[in-house]
Specification:
Strand content: 15-25%
Shape: globular
Pfam family, one: adh_short
Number of strands: 9
Bound molecules: NADP nicotinamide-adenine-dinucleotide phosphate
Keywords: Oxidoreductase
Distance between the termini: 63 Å
Helix content: 40-55%
Low-confidence stretches: none
Order of helices and strands: EHEHEHEHEHEEHHEHE
GO molecular function, one term: oxidoreductase activity, acting on the CH-OH group of donors, NAD or NADP as acceptor
Protein name: NAD(P)-dependent oxidoreductase
InterPro entries: KR_dom, NAD(P)-bd_dom_sf, Sc_DH/Rdtase_CS, SDR_fam
Amino acid sequence: MYQTIDPKEFTVFITGATSGFGAATARRYVEAGARVIATGRRAERLDELKAELGERCHVGVLDVRDFKAIEKFVADLPAPFDAINVVIANAGLALGLEPAAEVDITDWETMVDTNVKGLMYTIRALLPGMIARGGGHVVTVGSVAGDYPYPGGSVYGATKAFVKQLALNLRSDVQGKNIRVTNIEPGLTETEFSLVRFKGDDSKAAAPYANTEAMNADDIAESIVWSTILPRHVNINRVQMMATTQAFAPFDIYRED
Ligand SMILES: NC(=O)c1ccc[n+]([C@@H]2O[C@H](COP(=O)([O-])OP(=O)(O)OC[C@H]3O[C@@H](n4cnc5c(N)ncnc54)[C@H](OP(=O)(O)O)[C@@H]3O)[C@@H](O)[C@H]2O)c1
């Protein structure tokens, strides 16, 4: 039988665990026997998750845009949650879908601060401990938007291209240190992502998922967990996944009337 790693060996640090992929991944790991540190900004959501998942789950309010807060949180982690060997750098968001010339500049800034700088901060704060303990696994959450452009996605897609390239570069950077790096790149998945993008507008948020079957958070959690339980000599570099109902558009040729 093919030997995978028993998740009971894992202490998993997750950003963006208050909803969507992060929450589903926290549940999936605890179910499999891992210890999970679930973080995000919404304290109530974290309290609910803690009540649901019990003693194998430790929670903490954390904004990934605050490097010093991440460093302090990690330094203060109580045993047995203090020896993290899997990091799921998942926190992120898209804001708006306006054309670039009309976008609210603070939306672009928030996406860069969260998806780019927050990811950098998470990795920089967690990596030294894993190297010192002899190994680990960093899973970043990118997007198909990091490969395929779409109108209104200028900065969101660019942040996810950054995530992909950071993950690839990190892989060569940690060569020989027994650190694995995987970028998970989902397409259309139904979570609160769209509600956040459209700032609480339910009807706009529902439109991308209308009359179709998107992926769900459990689909993504399954791939995240799978990439981490493969034998230690295997590194999955990238996992690009789409709903079966989602495919590629042809090139968009502008024509004069
Ligand atoms: N859903 C999709 O179609 C899709 C496709 C490809 C990639 N993604 C990516 O997948 C990741 C998870 O998205 P999701 O679909 O699960 O969306 P979601 O349900 O909206 O979850 C996003 C998570 O990120 C957290 N977050 C946002 N800003 C944060 C900050 N400054 N500090 C800490 N946590 C923060 C949120 O928690 P708080 O608000 O409580 O802080 C929340 O837990 C994101 O990186 C997203 O870009 C999503």
